[in-house]
Structure formats: C-alpha cells, structure tokens
Amino acid sequence: MFEFALLGLLHEAPMHGYELRKRLHDLLGAFRAFSYGSLYPTLRRLQRAGLIVEEGPEEPALSWGRRARKVYKLTPEGKERFADLLANAGPQTWDDDSFGVHLAFFSRTPADIRMRILEGRRRCVEERREGLRERLTRTGEQIDRYTRELHRQGLESTEREVRWLNELIAHEQSEQDE
Amino acid sequence: MFEFALLGLLHEAPMHGYELRKRLHDLLGAFRAFSYGSLYPTLRRLQRAGLIVEEGPEEPALSWGRRARKVYKLTPEGKERFADLLANAGPQTWDDDSFGVHLAFFSRTPADIRMRILEGRRRCVEERREGLRERLTRTGEQIDRYTRELHRQGLESTEREVRWLNELIAHEQSEQDE
DNA sequence: CGAACGATGTATCGCGGCGATATAATCACC
DNA sequence: GGTGATTATATCGCCGCGATACATCGTTCG
Predict the structure, then answer these.
(1) A48 CB below 7 A from strand C atoms
(2) Left (φ > 0), alpha (ψ -120 to 50) or beta: where does A59 sit?
(3) What is the CATH number of domain B2-88?
(4) How confident is the model over A79-93, as a mean pLDDT?
C-alpha cells in the first residue's frame, strides 16, 4: 500500500521523505491517513530492495541553507514493480485500501486495466452489501437501536459506494465509445 | 480497540474465542473486520493482564462430544477496565475505530457519557470535513479527474457522517427532555 | 460405507502500519 | 534575542492482519 503509493509518487519526480508525505496527504488524504512512522521505514525497505536509490548530493553549493535531506529516485526495477502493482488489483476485500491508490494513479493507467480494477472493486463491495443486508434481516429486531443504526450507516455507505462505482464505470465506457 | 470490544462482549456472558469472533462480526461487522490473528493474541494479553480468566472445566460430563474450548470470563479488574474505556472517548481522529465500539455498547452507557462521545466524534469529523474542503479548493483545478473524484467521495461521506451524528444527537436530546 | 466438505475450534508467525517521541536546523516575527 | 511554527529525519514498541496449520464434528452425496 505505502510501497505502491510511494513508487507512484516518485514516478513524477525524485523527492525526499517530508515532501512525499505532503504529496501523499494532498493526493490521498481524502481516504487515508499517512504517518511518518511508516514512511521512513518503508523508504528504507524500498531502498534495500533496490527499488529506489538515494540521489547524489547534486547542486551542493546552490541555494545552501537547506538542511540535510535525502532525495530518492526510482530505479528501473522500481518502475517495473510499480507497473506490476498498477496492473493487478490488490486483495479483493472491502476494507483494502489499495483501490484508493489505484484510483489516484488512474490517469497513468491503461483503459482496460482501469476497467478491471473498477469492476473488481464493485464486485467485492457488492458482496459486502449483500452480506450486510442478509445480516440486517437475520438479526432483525432483536438488536438494540444503536447497533442497528451502525448497521444502517454501514449498509448505506456501501450502497453509495456501489452507485459511485457504477457512475465511474459508466463514464469509463462512454469515453471508450467515443 | 479489540480489547475494548472483547471486554464489552464478555460483559454479556462468558465465551470462548470462536464465539466471540462471531458475536463481534454480528455486532460490529458493519464497520470493521475482525481476524483471528488478533483475537487469540488479544485474549492472551487480557489474560496476562488479569482482566479475564479461563473458566474451570465445569460440566465436564454434560453434553460431551464438544471439542476443546477455552471459555473466558471477566474479572472485577476487567469490568473496571471496561468501565474506564466506556467513559472516555478514544483518540479523537477521524480514522479511529473506537467510536464504532462505543456505539455498539451505547445501550449500556449512561446518557451524559453517550452525549460526550457523540459530540466528540462530531467535532473531529467536522474538523476533517473542513480540512477536506480547504484542500479541495486549494488544489482546485490542477488535479486530475480521478483524484478529484476521490476527494469528492471522501468529502461527501464525511458530510453524511456529520448529518448522521446530528440526528443521533438530536434524538438523544429529545429523549432526555421527555 | 466411506469420502469429501464445511463448520467449529485454537493457535502462531512475520510483516506492515501507527502513535509517541526525540532531535535539530531554519524561518518569521516581535 | 527569544519564541514558536515549519522543515526534516528517524526509531521504538505495540497492534492488527493475512496466511497457515491442525484437529474434530456433522452432513451430504456417491
């Protein structure tokens, strides 16, 4: 997840940790929080895996005054890895975050893959919706008001996501026809 | 989180792990998934902390055929701990799950505390809403369609949650007046 | 009859992510 | 010249998850 997002951002330009976190927040803050406690360890992991490298000092004299910062850039292996992650959807569970990251990089994703990701997401959200409906009728009247309220809220937001996904898919199709 | 939910469930009756997980799923599945990979370690932790104890074999002969199961029950310390967790809201961030658990146990929560929890939640969701609005206007037109769509979706669901919380709070107040 | 399957049941392992925290330099402002 | 916000990197321990393993029971189907 983190790995996916970082590789995607570094695809735009080389960056250092702090900057990555800000971009992450702007790009994906609407659906997920990102902490430094994951950022730096993930960067180290990516570095050890050879997916990113620390850029040389470069411009050591120019604009001095900035304090120590480590700028990372993608390696060819990193680009390859990102392409892999882009192409296949993550684990198909309703609480998996990777869909959001996919969406954030959709403008760089081929149309057929976009469609596959969207439909995969829709399928798993629909499954969850059915599960919730079934549970709501099963547990019926025997649960207290607050729990039922929680269920209603969960079901409604799931239904809304399905509708949203349908719109996205429809838009995708109309674009394809044109 | 897990700890909170487990203590709450064991408040109803002594139970074993598998049963707890099923109840968890019925009660809170609408907003959160629960895995065994957390359940059993959490039970051990609670046991080590003296908040729960393994019930004696009890009825060893009756209804035999059932296979090995460990039934846990609350200790006085466990009840105390649960009361503490009930009374004060968890970390006030929009992605904190503990609100859902609180809600699930609302029927056992005093009215004034219910109100405090609801208002705390509303405050932090409203803050997030403002942050998202600000970011949407700031990043304005310079972001691609898909990312904007993600933002819109995040903002809308936040707004819906605020409305929902307002309803819950209003209902709470009307009940108090009566 | 037995095989196969799905539910019941307990448990662990490694890893990914988080909150808290430490450290430090720079900048803006009064 | 001090105070606080912002920029910047980093680690620690804990929590929760997915995968996996294993054993028993009831049912169903060939």
Answers:
(1) no
(2) left
(3) 1.10.10.10
(4) 91
Give percent of chain A with pLDDT exceeding 70. Answer: 92
Contact residues for B42 (Cβ-Cβ < 8 A; gap 6+): B2, B3, B6
Sequence ranges of the domains in chain A: 2-89, 110-177
The H-assigned helical ranges of chain B are 2-12, 17-28, 36-48, 76-87, 98-104, 111-139, 145-177
Res A61 pLDDT > 90: no
Q: Is A116 within 8 Å of A145 (Cβ atoms)? A: no
Reported as type and span, the H/E element at residue A47 is helix A36-48
Does any CB of chain A come closer than 8 Å to the CB of residue B35? no
Closest CA to B25 of B34, B16, B12: B34
What is the tens place of the pLDDT at every residue in B134-147?
888 888 778 899 99
**Structure-token pair, residue A155:** 């079901």
User: From 1.20.140.10, 3.40.50.300, 2.60.40.3500, 1.10.10.10, which CATH number describes the A2-89 domain?
Assistant: 1.10.10.10
Interchain CB distance below 8 Å, A30 and B95: no
CA–CA separation, A48 and A98 (whole Å): 23
Tokens found for residue B11: 């408040």
Q: What is the pTM of this model?
A: 0.88
For B116-145, b where at least 16 C-beta lie within 10 A, e where not — what string? ebbebbbebbbebbebbeebbeeeeeebee
Nearest chain A Cα distance for residue B104, angstroms = 5
Residue A156, C-beta contacts closer than 8 angstroms, at least 6 positions apart: B160
Q: Which of B30, B135, B146 sits opposite A29 (nearest CB)?
A: B135
